[in-house]
Amino acid sequence: MPRVKGGPTTKHRHKKVLKATRGHKATKHSHYKTANEAMLHALSYAYRHRRERKGDMRRLWITRINAAAREQGLSYSVLMHGLREAGVQIDRKMLADTAVRDTKAFSQLAEVAKGAA
To answer: Closest Cα partner for 67 from 79, 51, 85?
Structure first.
């Protein structure tokens, strides 16, 4: 059996890595060895940050709900407790969107929470 070096396969793999690192600085987009390391780091950061984004969004929703609740004379915790006691099943994402887009509806929800608390 003759020895097969795999030149085309290696070239395709290198081109794939260099294409993935387009936009990186210095030799991280032009030298295969550093580009491969940069690509592996970038992929691991992307994986981790996709999960972190969920917590970031939840923190943003809580901040928005708290700000809107303070305008209604409630704290975030009192509002959430009141809504839970009243049996209002609305998640933080929808509540934050209501606080930003429909202040009248949010004030009605705040009144419900005040009555239940």
So the answer is: 79
